Amino acid sequence: MTTQALTPARDAFTVHNSASPPEDVIFGSSPAMEAVRLSVGVAAGANVPILLQGPSGSGKEILARLIHQRSSWGHGTFVKVNCPAIPNTLFESELFGYQKGAFTGAYASKPGRIELADRGTLFLDEIAELELGLQAKLLQLPQDGQFCRIGGHRERQVEVRFICATNRQLEKEIKTGTFRQDLFYRINVLTIELPGLQHRICDIPMLADYFLDKFEREFNRPVPTLSTRLIQAMQKYSWPGNIRELENLLKRYVITGNEETICSSMENGHGHDLEPELPVEGVIKLKDATRKATKELEQKIILKTLEAHRWNRRMAARALSISYAALLYKLREAGIPPRGSGRRSKNESSSRTDLKTAPISGPINREP
User: Fold this and answer.
1) Going from the N-terminus, what domains does the chain have, and what CATH number goes with each?
2) Angle 32-34-38 from CA coordinates, rounded to 5°
């Protein structure tokens, strides 16, 4: 095996012993989160693999930390592995570790993240992003805690609480051939479904208070209370970015001190995607109006999916259950320009593009 001992992307692997937000903030008072609260109580008391499913930004990592803290391994280490941020060539060596001389650049033996999580929790975030070959290498670990370092000949044993998270429905990924069925059965002994923020609107005032207090202390500046008008507007918004979007908007508000920054962001975020523009006067052609509204909604869904997958078009196509060629066609049709040129980084930052005005600046490059 020839592998370079490279350094993975920053924050791909993190080790934490930090505390979670208060539980009343995590769970709120919505019926959807009450079901999650009950599931967490069961999951924390059983040392079995746990699968957390929910949209991006819904709080899967926070929930994983809470399960860890409540479990019998709560005194141990919480090790997060950010699967999409790690090059495939590095994932195996960083997760399992390696022996001296196992490959070019392995000048000394190195323990992997599994060993760091011994008597603690290993959290694999966005596990659905792993390629099939790497998924196969994980099969034994959640079943019996055994693994072998690269270049090693001895099976090692760890006691690890195994938690995985994904923003996809893995049953659908299995049908499309992008996720292994045998791995799915090993990681979903207990499954917890997290709702998006639009399904827990009643929790927005409490979440807003929590974030405002947090950022007031972080930036050391007084923050005025949000107006009733703004709270009502926030409860009508669709929140495609979920709690993470709410957190970032309130951080911006604390820095600027202007409620209009939040209102403007929500307006640009198309919180009312199903409200088509209709002529004030004249005849409305229902067929044409419906076709136009459907096309606009489709383009907004595509844009949000691309942003959620860091503008990786192949991953976005899989998430949308369409072919890569079909996605490229729809991007050209919408006039969405390519993001940069040449090989695209998975960590490339994304910014919102106005679908109605974005010019076509050239042919869309193929993903590497």
Assistant:
1) 13-195 (3.40.50.300), 199-268 (1.10.8.60), 285-368 (1.10.10)
2) 125
